[in-house]
Amino acid sequence: MTRHKQSGVLALQWTGHSLKVLDQRQLPEKISYDEYTDAYGVAEAITTMRVRGAPAIGIAAAYGVVLSVYQHYSQIDNNWRQHVLADIGTLANSRPTAVNLFWALNQMKAVLDGEGDNPRPAIFACAEKIHADDIAANYKMGELGADILANAKGIMTHCNTGALATGGYGTALGVIRSLYARNAVKIYAGETRPWLQGQRLTVWELAQDKIPVTLIADSAAAWLMRSGAIDWVVVGADRIALNGDVANKIGTYSLAVLAKQHNVKVMVVAPTSTIDGSINSGDQIEIEQRQQSELLPACYKDNTFVSAWNPVFDVTPAELISAIVTERGVVMNPGEIGVDRLLKT
Ligand code: MRU
User: Fold this and answer.
1) H helix or E strand, kind and range, residue 233
2) Is the CB of 324 under 6 A from ligand 1?
3) Catalytic residue flag (residue 238)
4) Of 29, 71, 163, 271, whose Cβ has the fewest other Cβ atoms within 10 Å?
5) 239 lines ligand 1 (CB under 6 A)
6) Are residues 196 and 304 in the same domain?
7) Same domain, 60 and 151
8) What domain range includes position 159?
9) Are residues 129 and 275 in the same domain?
10) Ligand 1 in contact with 245 (CB < 6 A)?
11) What does the pLDDT look like over 303-326, one tens digit per residue?
């Protein structure tokens, strides 16, 4: 396991006895951390999107299990295991779409099942490894993705896939960072309605690193592509099915359809922890529906004639994707061959 130092703002900080979570709802106006000492609090931080982004959700949940063990483990009370399993259940119910959450919880549970006497050191080591491995995977994907994008003049990204959404550095944004370090490519970020991850988080992260970025309204994407300014759309993923279908932030599917029309390519960047080896197609992915209030102006709150439909992810069929980049390698044209080989290496 190569250890990479984290740079920039941290979404998550383990203090030794608590987890500090950067409240991303308040960015970019305010940098404010909430401190959690139990799994219930961490689950709430995930549900309320103080922490968001598939890998970061998985890492937060892993530390949530550490907090649960620290809280409940006792040499004299054998019931502690039940309490920890209940907390794992609470964490698993925090959000449904990002598979990294369940992947991380399964790893933590396996350690718990294997430990006899004192589970505390092993359970912490597992969470720390999930965190460190994610950062290392991002640096690896950064290089692999930048190799493919070497001749790109312009790229567009969607949502936020940077340090804020991961253990550090980022997936799609990690590739963009690595590419920009090699040559000054033009970068466009879609605002990503309704939660504005692109406008509030991606633009902020890139500006912090002094990487120039141009914000566009989501609805300007077709016109941007039509102008010839971009060659690639580069995005992350919340869950990838074995056939290469990709669940990601709502709007990704629209971008992929538009990209096909305009001869723009689509790259998905995600660690293998985002591949769900138990599903064959994107049809099997649960798409989270969030509250109407995240979309509806407050004045319509009690208006029985007005409602909102607010799915926050969509599924892009594999045939619209040119490349899936993982830390274990790249699959070009996943629509032809799927991604199962990545889980076998
Ligand atoms: O609702 P969010 O902000 O958790 O959604 C995040 C995304 O869709 C990201 O693109 C995805 O999790 C990849 S983050 C590296």
Assistant:
1) strand 232-235
2) no
3) yes
4) 29
5) no
6) yes
7) no
8) 142-344
9) no
10) no
11) 999 999 999 999 999 999 999 999
Q: Is residue 181 part of a domain?
A: yes
From the candidates 133, 134, 231, 238, which is the catalytic residue?
238
Q: CA–CA separation, 269 vs 214, rounded Å?
A: 21
In this structure, the answer to whether residues 196 and 310 fall within a common structural domain is: yes
Mutating to test ligand 1, I would choose from 160, 287, 288 the residue with most ligand atoms within 8 A of its C-beta, which is: 160
pTM: 0.96
Q: Which of 97, 113, 134 is the last residue of a domain?
A: 134
The model's pLDDT over 149-174, given as tens digits with 9 standing for 90+, comes to 999 999 999 999 999 999 999 999 99
Closest atom of ligand 1 to CA, residue 166: 15
Q: Looking at the structure, do residues 70 and 158 belong to the same domain, yes or no?
A: no
* Tokens encoding 265: 């390519």
Q: Are residues 176 and 72 in the same domain?
A: no
Q: Could you identify the atom of ligand 1 that is nearest to the CA of residue 270?
A: 15
- Cis ω before 194 (30° cut-off from 0): yes
Residue 304 is assigned to a structural domain of this protein: yes
- d(CA 222, CA 259) in angstroms, rounded, equals 8
